[in-house]
Amino acid sequence: MQSPSLFRNILPVLGLVFALSPLGQAASPNRIAAVAAESRAAVPHTVSPRVKNAADLGSAPSDRVLDSLTLRFNMTAAQQATLTQLLNDQQNPSSPRYHQWLTPEQFGAQFGLSSADLAKVSSWLTSQGFTITGVARSSTFITFTGTVDQAQKAFHTTIHNLNLNGEQHFANTTDAVLPASIAGVVSTITGLNNFRLKSRAVPRVVKTDVLDPKYTSSVSGGHFIAPGDFYTIYDSKALISSGIDGTGVGAGTGGGYSIAVMGQVDLSLADVAAFRAASGLPANVPTVKTYGPDPGAATTSTSTPNTGDLAEAQLDVEWSGASAPSAKIVYVNSKDVINTSMPAAIDNNLAPIISISYGNCEAAAGISDMDSFNQLFQQANAEGITIVGPAGDSGATDCDSNTAIATQGLGVDFPGSSPFVTSAGGTMFNDGSSTGATTYWSATNGANSSSAVSYIPETAWNETSASGLSAGGGGASAFFSKPSWQSGTGVPNDYARDVPDISLDSASNHDGYLFCAQGSCVNGYRDASGNLNVVGGTSVVAPSFAGILALVEQEQQKLSPNISPRIGNANPTLYGLGLGNSSYYNDVFHDITGGNNSSPCETGTPNCPSTGSIGYTAGTGYDQATGLGTIDAYNLATKWSLSTPTGVNSAATISATSLTTTASICGISSGSLPLSVNVINGTFDSSGNPITGSFPTGTVQFFVDSAAVGSPVALVSGHAAYTLNTSAISSGAHTISAVYSGDNTYAGSRGTLLASDGSPSPIDVVSTTSPDFSITPCNANVTVKAGGVGPGIVFTLTPFQGFTGPITLTTNTNQTVAASYSFSPALSSTNTITINSTASVPVTLTLSAFQSNAKTATAQLKLASNHPPAMKLPWYVAGSGATLACMFLLVLPRRRRWGALLAVIISVGIIGAGGCGGSSSSTPTSTTTPTPTPVTNATPGTYTITITAVAGNVSHSATILFTVQ
């Protein structure tokens, strides 16, 4: 990454912004007194949550080069307070700081590290053998390179090779440790792993035997979205025909570009040109800027997995440019879209609008990374940069991807869940099966390949089928509390940041967007065989809405030439237009009131009701399926300045909320659970300790599965206690959280009940009114050498409320491991154990660190989930009806976002009357001449295995950490 020299980064803050502000500071304070190597402190949460779901392949080569290492610095409480007020003032039309955006250097002067501290950090890094490659213009991070050996020694961590879902990765397996004085100013370290965000696109190829580049397709009669259709449906045609086409907005405001598109693979400019030619758009060649090592072209290599990134890059550049036909597009390329491309775009102030079509569910993103990047997004907003990101494509269950059934509960997509990013959700057209073709579509095509004749009614996007989840993301953040600008009709009173904010068409089938990739457009949009490349997903919404915002900014520049047209955080104005002033809502937005983003879910898994469906329904005003609705671009642009932005959080100091319990969280049969909440200052001193001072005041609201329970509880000296009435909660797993309201000094924050390893952990409730049972303990640990047999784990099934009957037990994993198991006493042929009295029934599970082909039976096949690393939650799969078998191969094969493969092979061994008893053996029983039996030993590593107990609609589970040495 290109950067100015170290000592150029701290510059005096000049201009009206700070001359008029009592909060202006001449320079950042010095925070590092001295760097003492013998005094060390860990940087919390620097191990990716994805590590625990990956198979450990052993130590990474010591000479492997880590070429994208970054230390990212936090802010003091005073700096955060000043920044919060600045962001508020920049959105307030009555403030003298309204739209007075900062340069990166001005941002660094107030909110970055001082030049003296940067020098100390730089000196320490070079003393450890690292090579510094850049210092942020905003003084908020330092990039450097080094080897695995240097990183392990400097950060007192271990870096291993890992296998996750068939992809090869490396990652640190313990938190990084730094000299205490440096650890106190570091929010996270990136580059110690190569896990990356995933594309949120849903592509498909539409095959045909006849060449015809017009859409409506004369071949199939089907409809596909070309740029001209987009202009008609979302009413941007009048803007474009009047000369509002996205030109000129970026000039003189930081880099000369209107939209910066984030990517992590080399782009094909020829495909972009082919798309624009097929669409009847003027030639407009994007600029490509690469930061750090070039990621190269798309490859299927498991060591550098970036399959699908190329199609994502093409559609993002093509559709941001189609939505704003003359916008200056810069494609920001690197090996990592969030760790390198995004910071480079913001720190170099490349464009007033950033589009990113990548994401991951919050639980997989990790606490330290979300916190650090949320600070980066605040910098972007302070520079006047608007960020648009996808809401996700797995409905309300974002942690489940490429699966036909959800098991990990409610979840939303980051970075879209950040309050400083506009989250783009999805809709689909509801044009009617018989009249739609004649009412809303022309049989021929006009300008820009258009055939749509008007706005088309929409519902929430949901094309979920047996092939997999495919619906617009949405729901409540488990990490970010509700920003004060998010209010109005339909906004849930859930104390959480809700997504999405807006939506546009996202359907892949009805109706998808045309795009060009890998030479697919040789005759209009068709390839040489007459096929079309069609794509859906919220991946398309982000760049398309970014283009609409470029039109909005150009319109504002025309109307108010003396005020910067940059928008910064678009959300306060969007909600001001949408819900803050009802006279504009119906002009600017299409209120989507039909459909849902629900996912089918496995009964008994977190948040899954007895109906087996989980998600949100579209309704009047705001909803968690479509946000504020879809856009009328002309009215959005022309009425933008007429709305007063809704309020932003003016609290001075960030807070941190923790939620704990002293009771067991599994098999809760008492009807109550004691909870304890502590709310503290969310910043730390140079020794890594929370900064003390006045206690936060206000209240705490408790939630079960994002639904408020009871009344808010007042804090006393930053503490609140609450007894949760579990008798009012349905049987099974539930997520418990607490949200602090904030006060005049402290901002609100959210805490989730955590397991001992720091991951969100659901409670397991036993009904107090209906027949039910428990399985205890809910957590166990087993360590065994590869090829060996572990000690038995005794699980106890206890009946409550007169429960009797059979309980089916299944044993599954979300990782690939060659392992076998047995139950004692042996289960029946239907994989059940029966309770016929009030007495508890013990059952012993024995795990063996090998898999043998000895006397195995044909296994039942079942479609299963590709679980991204997220909350440590169970994976449920129904038991097999197979006959006697002693061995069980636990497999989760490779899945790819872009692939069509959705099959999984699970071999489930069922123990019958003549079973293996209390242990597993690799010796076969045979009536013929014995032959050597192939045995596969388990690969060393730590695996998560789930035991699921099901009786009718009642389900409980236990988790085992299975360590193979």
Automatic annotation (TrEMBL):
Keywords: Calcium, Hydrolase, Membrane, Metal-binding, Protease, Serine protease, Signal, Transmembrane, Transmembrane helix, Zymogen. CDD domains: Peptidases_S53, Pro-peptidase_S53. GO terms for biological process: proteolysis. Residues 1-26 form the signal peptide. PROSITE patterns: SEDOLISIN (PS51695). The keyword Cell cycle does not apply. It comes from Edaphobacter paludis. GO terms for molecular function: metal ion binding; serine-type endopeptidase activity; tripeptidyl-peptidase activity. Residues 224-643 form the Peptidase S53 domain. This is Protease pro-enzyme activation domain-containing protein. Pfam families: Big_3_5, Pro-kuma_activ. The chain crosses the membrane at residues 873-892, 899-921, 941-964. PANTHER family: PROTEASE S8 TRIPEPTIDYL PEPTIDASE I CLN2, TRIPEPTIDYL-PEPTIDASE 1. It comes from the Bacteria. Its cofactor is Ca(2+).
